[in-house]
Amino acid sequence: MAWASDITYIRTGEGWLYLATVIDLYSRRIIGLSLSNRLKKQLVIDASEMAIKQRRPTGKVIVHSDRGSQPASHRYREILKNNDLVCSMSGKGCCYDNAVMESFCHTLKTELMQGKAFSSREQAMNALFDYIEVFYNRRRRHSTLGYQTPVHYEMAA
């Protein structure tokens, strides 16, 4: 079992909003997310804890991320270790190592935000939650899943 995580930045009329997500690489389902107006390690910790609570993993799970300061923090790695999760990090300067997350962030920005402007962080938060939980996980079909949604793919397994 393997998960991947990343952070992306969302521009709003009130300033930046930061989105941390954790994706299950088997089903492409977003299993953890966290939003904040501050780019701190707690952002990735909250998204990871959501994924852990949702999946309750047993056995070895690899959690991959880039080498940013948030996922490289001692506290984040401690949480993974305490939940028997294995930390994996991209090679220095190699975005291809986290390609699934980079692709998700690009897809989100293309499908949700292209040509739109969020006047507030709250407006962006609501739109992001709806996109991820209502559309991406339950309605958006993925070619890698045989054109099934992540939720349907997991149910069929």
UniProtKB/TrEMBL annotation:
A single GO BP: DNA integration
Ranges in a coiled coil: none
Name of the protein this chain belongs to: IS3 family transposase
Domain annotation Integrase catalytic: ranges: 1-157
Pfam families for the chain: rve, rve_2
SUPFAM superfamilies: Ribonuclease H-like
Signal peptide range in chain numbering: none
